[in-house]
Amino acid sequence: MHEHARIAAFFAPLSAGEAGAFHLKDDAAALTPPTGQQIVLTTDSVIEDVHLPVGATAAQFAHKLIRRNLSDLAAMGATPWRYLLNIHLPKRIDDDWLKEFSATLAQLQQHFGMVLVGGDSTGNDRIHLTATLIGLVKIPLTRAGAKAGDGIYVTGRIGDAAMALKNLKGAAPEVLARYYQPEPRIAVGQKLHGVATAAIDISDGLVQDLGQLCAASGVGAVIDVATIPFSPDGDIKTMLTGGDDYELLFTAASEPKGFDVTITRIGSIEAGSGVKVLGYDGPVEGYSH
Amino acid sequence: MHEHARIAAFFAPLSAGEAGAFHLKDDAAALTPPTGQQIVLTTDSVIEDVHLPVGATAAQFAHKLIRRNLSDLAAMGATPWRYLLNIHLPKRIDDDWLKEFSATLAQLQQHFGMVLVGGDSTGNDRIHLTATLIGLVKIPLTRAGAKAGDGIYVTGRIGDAAMALKNLKGAAPEVLARYYQPEPRIAVGQKLHGVATAAIDISDGLVQDLGQLCAASGVGAVIDVATIPFSPDGDIKTMLTGGDDYELLFTAASEPKGFDVTITRIGSIEAGSGVKVLGYDGPVEGYSH
């Protein structure tokens, strides 16, 4: 199929919920955000052989692409709203691949409440996808509000994705799913307004991302390995520094309550700078793609 | 330099005009568009060896990337406002390249009134850049309003970029500049509200893009080769179908007046469908990247 025919067949139906997407047939989208809300913008890419292994399925590409971007909206406390896609594909990609990819996007749109409003497509030597998500929020959470004495909390479990990546052929299905279909903590982020003093999603590694939050807030942190909800059977260094979990890390002055997701205190904010890790002697540095 | 250091050195300064960019240090940007305006979103990529030849300079990459996106805002009648960048670069790219690239972005920002608010960066096998632009408009121009009897108009000159692409080593500097630094017709687009019935930018080729406008409007078109302001010394087929000029094509019920740019009538909208080209016998089809 020609490019225009592919857009019409596989992607234009994903824009049905937004008249300002002009059926993906115009030069740009024109949107009217709800009054009283800020728009939150984030963009991230998924490249074959960089962020996903060669041979990953169309569904796996769609999940990883959308979910890692959603995680950034979650860290701002935002609600997903609209998105754009840049789809750059090698010639070997056929219509079956696009059918699976767009069907997965349709599921993700429905589940997270988003509508496709634009993008571009072109040829490339390997699968290279970018999504730009637009969320809505009244007052955004940021990384810059942590204060000495705050507790440091994480959602879910840390290290699954990094352990999966070390053993893509042999890891348990539950651990593999955490790598291929991370769960963006949208509902948690939305409820953190008035609770968290700062928040970040763990995409580059627990220690590195906590370090970013500390730098933005002008504080230091101490975490205790014994309290971190690690992946079973993982090695500590990989789990402290491995990326791709997309759990939320946040700071709060008092114990957060009433969340549907497991939230664990792993340490405290203190005056100063940098991240101290109790119970681990080796050097720690985050993962960078 | 490490990725974070590069962002801090070369890109964070470009976000100085927007507090909601959080110095490019947070998970996402949070923006408040002016009331009474719609936000216009467009995204396009520039890939080495696809959209620009291997060996193009950092400045040429910056110009092409931003200007081709600006052209889409122009076609909607929008005013540039904010943008995001996905910067995916091979290891050979050094800090000098980034310095030239970001300095060119700074010039473009100042000239067109935009501020960088976010993005991502990662490694890739070749230079692969994406920009997502956010414009503002009260009422967008679209492709879907042309009516039988309207005149068909183009800005500037058609075919320079396609002729340059055929002869990148030997074309005249003025023609080469049109390929490397196309002029987005922002000011024209802004003045077309109430004048144009439909508009599109010529990115894929005059005949193909006019065909898109006709399809969106449910009309046909006839244009006359003798009236088209072609590049000097070009061949007609290349100029009718070559892309990358980024001139505006629009339809209007009466002669548009008072523009600073040369605007030429090249034909008429009629009932029916498809594009007829008077004065040229060969087959015509647009250029697709």
Describe the SSE topology.
Two copies of one chain form a homodimer.
Chain A lengths: L2 H9 L17 E3 L6 E10 L10 H18 L3 E11 L5 H18 L2 E9 L4 E10 L13 E5 L4 H7 L6 H8 L5 H6 L4 E6 L4 H12 L2 E5 L11 H6 L6 E5 L10 E8 L3 E5 L11
Parallel strand pairs in A: 3-4, 8-11
Antiparallel strand pairs in A: 2-5, 3-5, 6-9, 6-10, 7-9, 8-10
Helix pairs in contact in A: 2-3, 4-5
Structure explained in plain terms:
2 copies of one chain form a homodimer. With 289 residues, chain A is an alpha+beta fold. Chain A folds into 2 domains: 3-137, 60s Ribosomal Protein L30, Chain: A (2-Layer Sandwich), CATH 3.30.1330.10; 151-278, Phosphoribosyl-aminoimidazole Synthetase, Chain A, domain 2. Chain A has 8 helices and 11 strands. Chain A has helices at residues 3-11, 58-75, 95-112, 160-166, 173-180, 186-191, 206-217, 236-241, and strands spanning 29-31, 38-47, 79-89, 115-123, 128-137, 151-155, 196-201, 220-224, 248-252, 263-270, 274-278. In chain A, the strands form 2 sheets. Chain A has a 6-stranded mixed sheet with strand order 7-9-6-10-8-11. In chain A, strands 2-5-3-4 form a 4-stranded mixed sheet. In chain A, strand 3 (79-89), helix 3 and strand 4 form a beta-alpha-beta unit. In chain A, helix 2 runs parallel beside helix 3 and helix 4 packs across helix 5. The longest helix of chain A is centred in the first third of the chain and has 18 residues, at 58-75. Chains A and B meet through strand 1, strand 2, helix 2, strand 3 and strand 4 of A and strand 1, strand 2, helix 2, strand 3 and strand 4 of B. Strand 1 of chain A pairs antiparallel with strand 2 (38-47) of chain B.
